[in-house]
Amino acid sequence: MKLVTVYCVALLGTFFLNSDNAPFELNLKPLWKNLDTNQATIEKFGGKWVLAGEIDLKKRTPELLRLNKFVLRWQGKPLNNLVASLYKKELDKKFLLIQDYLVCDSSWEPTNQRLILHFDHQVLLETRTIFYLVLTIPKEIETSIQEGSFMLESQTLPPLLKNALPKKPIMLTYCP
After folding, report:
1. Distance between CA 33 and CA 121 in Å, rounded?
2. How, if at all, do strands 114-124 and 107-109 pair?
3. Which residues neighbour 65 within 8 Å (Cβ) at sequence distance 6 or greater?
4. Is the domain covering 23-173 a CATH 2.60.40 domain?
5. Of 91, 133, 138, 148, which alpha carbon lies 20 to 30 A from 82's?
6. How do the domains of the chain map onto residue ranges?
């Protein structure tokens, strides 16, 4: 009987240590797709609209969790300004760059080189929640953006999510 109990405890330990069974999973997937090549639009908005990446959150716990911001630290040549917007993907619909899907516009901290995405309204995490990061990239910083990366500042996330994430940095890097 003791052997069966030890085996069950070991099996459960393996089950809960497996990342597939973590209460949360967060992935940053680089996309780097130009959303508009119309020169008039590029000039009007001060740069290319680029779908830089996808923030994919999977929740495997019944606990309710609301997010109210993401903070991305820029790692690369210092930037004076960076403009971005965060959109929520409706899983059953095609993504469109429309107001209905807008979660927030960003603010830029030039001193700390941080992109702050403070949500207009808290977002309740579903079993799977996907956000899209859209950057407005002026021609003069395009090369810098391609040579640097963003790191998600996990300490700015709610404790329940932060504590479930791996300790390694979660990065978004240019990928053509």
Report:
1. 27
2. antiparallel
3. 24, 59, 124, 125, 158, 160, 161
4. yes
5. 91
6. 23-173
Looking at per-residue confidence, does 176 or 89 come out higher?
A: 89
Collapsed DSSP state (helix, strand, coil) of residue 36: coil
Average pLDDT over the chain reads: 86
DSSP string spanning 74-139? EESS--S--EEEEEEEPTTS-----GGGEEEE-EEETTTTEEEEEEEEEEE--SEEEEEEEEEE-G
Q: Within 10 A of 26 (CB to CB), how many other CB atoms are there?
A: 21
Q: What is the pLDDT of residues 50-94, one digit of tens each?
A: 999 999 999 999 999 999 999 999 999 999 999 999 999 999 888
**Eight-class DSSP state of 1:** -
Q: Among residues 120, 92, 93, 95, which one has the least CA distance to residue 106?
A: 120
What confidence score (pLDDT) does residue 95 get? 84
**CA nearest 87: which of 33, 36, 133, 126?**
133
Sign of CA dihedral 89, 92, 97, 100: negative
